[in-house]
Design goal:
Blueprint (H helix, E strand, L loop, with lengths): L21 E5 L44 H9 L25 H21 L5 H8 L3 H29 L1 H20 L7 H16 L4 H9 L5 H26 L7 H29 L10 H5 L10 H10 L1 H32 L3 H28 L2 H22 L5 H15 L2 H13 L4 H29 L2 H20 L6 H7 L6 E5 L22
Antiparallel strand pairs: 1-2
């Protein structure tokens, strides 16, 4: 435990990231040099010289009595990026542990993001859920209407790399402004498309909304990490993901009500579409103004030890390409990338084609919207419960595997109960499917952040979403072909096969909870930590520290 501020005597350079007054020391030195052991913590096995030039992570012997260990620094030294050797301050500035604090503004930031994410998700699904209405109004094929949904997936894949680069180098606030602003602009362009010959204008507006989505989907885990503490980070991420799902739910519910099928009265139909478009634009613009006023880059103090431990590297020192390479060298992350893409791609496909599936069995679309609403609302409950469970237990892999398996079972049951043509059963099975399938989404984000720390949350989340969009496009095209040429059960069975493969790959993921280890101080067995301010050595000098390179992880 570090001495109080007025008793500390260890000199450290300005900006030195000490936590509780401990520094990491490599293993392997003679045990006689450092023999004291604190119950519940590993024993120091490396000596330390105070002062003098250093060649390794610390100096090579220890003058003075043995010192206590701090396991949290072991994980920190193993994971954090390499930096220049930090020089001791001749003035003898006292070492202080980094201050962590929670800001009340975090709830405002989360609320604003959640609302404009909701509007963006609403615009994604507003065409597909009443596809037959827009087919008749614009005089286009069902595939044209499907592309109004799939453009969200298509735009994400090439744009995710510049978007995550922008997030990592220019920050959270600018990315949020771009997402909210483009969302508003796309909504206003669609207001100019309410004429049967202006399908291309509505596609242009939807295209801008799809670009806005690129600056939205990768933010939940980043906002949660930057603004929320370790006991609430998973719940915050789940809440942000939940808002996007709520937007999908509203998109299932409102369009069939606002735009009923009045093909025999084109003027009334155009008026109803115009009402929906202008209402969406007004809300999106209001949220853009709120984002500009109240959305801040980061809180005054980091909310957790994991955030406090990260270096404040300027953009010039950040290598986006190196970060991408590190992620693709991380085998557990690559497996998660595939499994997340399969699960989320299947959800996108089912959401896009739900109207066609329900109309095939029940010859009406009002219940399609209601079933979609049931699916997403149940998933919102699943998202929150999964987030709370992770904050309480930190059992990332076990929870992910169980939810994945139950999603597969839900998909199988949903597929084979459609043939019963009982609408009540479809509502029940759709709710079960949604509870687990959309409840999985925040699990994937948070699991990725844990196994890739200290890489940027935006980069890992962006790659997960890119995989989801790729699988979503492929699954939607394949399921649509199977549904139209055969029957909906064939398309659903196709998704079941892929989800079963996802279960197998999820079981192969190795769980290495790096961020969690930093927060709780879990030793990794490769680096020891000794206290700088030993109780029996009241005049310790500065210690020079070189952190290990993250490329050695």
């Amino acid at each position: 435990m570090a001495l109080p501020d007025d008793e500390e005597g260890a000199a450290t350079p300005p900006g030195h990231r000490l936590s509780n007054g401990y520094l990491p020391v490599p293993r392997g030195a003679p045990a006689a040099e450092a023999s004291a052991e604190v119950p519940g913590r590993p024993q120091a096995t490396c000596p330390l010289h105070n002062g003098g030039p250093q060649d390794g992570s610390v100096s090579e012997d220890l003058s003075g009595p043995p010192m206590r260990l701090a396991p949290e620094e072991e994980t920190r030294a193993r994971l954090l990026p390499a930096g220049a050797v930090e020089e001791a301050d001749p003035g003898g500035a006292a070492a202080r542990p980094p201050r962590t604090a929670l800001s009340a503004r975090r709830f405002v930031v989360l609320l604003i993001f959640s609302l404009y994410s909701l509007v963006n998700a609403f615009q994604w699904i507003q065409y597909s859920i009443i596809s037959h209405v827009f087919e008749g109004f614009y005089g286009v094929s069902p595939l044209h209407i499907d592309w109004l949904s799939m453009v969200y997936m298509l735009a994400y894949v090439p744009l995710i790399f510049p978007a995550t680069w922008l997030l990592d180098t220019r920050g959270l606030r600018l990315t949020a402004l771009l997402g909210s602003g483009l969302n508003s602009l796309g909504a206003w362009i669609k207001c100019c498309s309410v004429q049967p010959h202006l399908f291309w204008v509505t596609m242009l507006g939807q295209g801008l909304c799809s670009v806005a989505q690129v600056f939205i989907l990768g933010l939940p885990s980043r906002i949660a990490s930057v603004w929320f503490g370790p006991t609430e980070v998973s719940t915050a991420c789940a809440t942000a993901v939940l808002a996007n799902q709520l937007g999908t739910a509203v998109g299932f519910l409102l369009p069939p009500v606002l735009v009923p099928n009045t093909q025999n009265n084109t003027e009334l139909l155009a008026s109803n579409i115009r009402t929906m478009f202008y209402g969406t634009s007004a809300v999106a613009t209001f949220l853009f103004i709120l984002t500009a006023i109240a959305f801040k880059e980061k809180p005054p103090y980091p909310p957790s030890e994991a955030q406090a431990a990260l270096p404040d590297s300027p953009p010039a020192q950040y290598s986006y390409l190196k970060s991408i390479k590190n992620l693709f060298k991380n085998i557990p992350f690559v497996l998660l990338l595939i499994t997340y893409g399969i699960m989320t791609g299947a959800f996108y496909s089912v959401s896009t084609l739900l109207n066609q599936i329900i109309v095939y069995y029940f010859q009406e679309n009002v219940n399609a919207g209601r079933i979609g609403l049931t699916l997403v609302v149940a998933g919102m409950v699943g998202s929150i419960l999964c987030g709370l469970w992770l904050d309480h237990t930190k059992t990332y892999k076990q929870t992910t595997l169980i939810v994945y398996t139950l999603s597969f079972i839900g998909m199988v049951v949903f597929t084979f109960t459609l043939d019963l043509k009982c609408i009540i059963i479809v509502f029940i099975t759709g709710g079960i499917l949604g509870f687990f399938m959309t409840g999985y989404l925040p699990l994937g984000f948070e699991f990725a952040v844990e196994i890739t720390y200290p890489e940027s949350e935006g980069t890992s989340s962006g790659l997960l979403n890119a995989a989801a969009q790729i699988f979503g496009i492929l699954f939607t095209l394949a399921q649509r072909k199977l549904t139209t040429e055969y029957y909906p059960s064939a398309g659903n069975s196709f998704l079941c096969v892929w989800m079963f493969l996802g279960i197998i790959l999820t079981a192969l993921i190795r769980s290495d909870l790096r961020r969690h280890n930093i927060n709780i101080g879990l030793a990794n067995g490769e680096i020891k930590a000794v206290a700088v301010d030993s109780p029996t050595n009241q005049n310790p000098k500065a210690v020079v520290l070189t952190k290990q390179s993250e490329s050695s992880i």
